Amino acid sequence: MAISQHAAEFLVRSRLADAERGDVDALFDLGVTYSTGETGVAVDLIEAHKWFNLAALGGSARGQECRAEISGEMTAREIAEAQRQARAWLAVTHGTSQRYAVA
Q1: What is the pLDDT along the chain (103 residues), one digit of tens a residue?
Q2: What element of type H or E holds 55?
Q3: pTM of the prediction?
Q4: Is residue 34 part of a domain?
């Protein structure tokens, strides 16, 4: 059964809120959402890499694996952009990106 656009947006907002509170599973779930389009969002490998990267930084082995897997489908510029976005997200949500080494 297809998910409505409204429901998809709610799910993403909900997982974003969880991610902002440090929920590593939410970070991973956002990576899955953007890598597969599973909840009705457009597939976006840059967004997916960003979320998998953040999950990996939080200790998720699955995040590390998925980040490596989608990296093979991305250009070096796309990966660099995903890393930039991950650093920006950390700076906004944690006040600094200095504590984290974004891979």
Answers
A1: 456 777 778 888 999 999 999 899 999 999 999 999 988 889 999 999 999 999 999 999 999 999 999 999 999 999 999 999 999 999 999 875 444 445 5
A2: helix 45-57
A3: 0.86
A4: yes
